[in-house]
Design brief:
Length: about 110
């Protein structure tokens, strides 16, 4: 795993940040909206959003005096590509196990 994936998975490993990502799947939200929905204090929500932004998971759009956060699709595509190699590996192993079990004497 390279440094980029380590940072991405590290950012997503914290439960509150995963909850924020889940919320943002519905669409962009302000810090206040995120804090209210997750019952966090606004400074806590801001801190988590900063980590997610540094990892490239979210981006900020300024609208007047409010900042709206939205998910970026690229990190999730990268994660999908990385996981695809493992999915293929396990699929091959399960296929071999299946064949072995079918050829076992009763």
């Amino acid at each position: 795993m390279d440094e980029r994936h380590t940072e991405l998975f590290g950012a997503l490993a914290e439960p509150s940040r995963m909850r924020i990502v889940s919320l943002l799947r519905e669409g962009p939200l302000s810090v206040g909206e995120i804090a209210d929905r997750l019952e966090l204090r606004q400074p806590q929500a801001s801190k988590h959003l900063k980590v997610l932004q540094q990892a490239g998971v979210v981006e900020v759009q300024a609208a007047a005096n409010r900042r709206h956060y939205r998910l970026r699709p690229e990190p999730f595509r990268e994660m999908e590509d990385w996981l695809a190699g493992y999915r293929e590996l396990w699929s091959e192993r399960f296929d071999r196990l299946d064949e072995y079990l079918r050829n076992m004497p009763d």
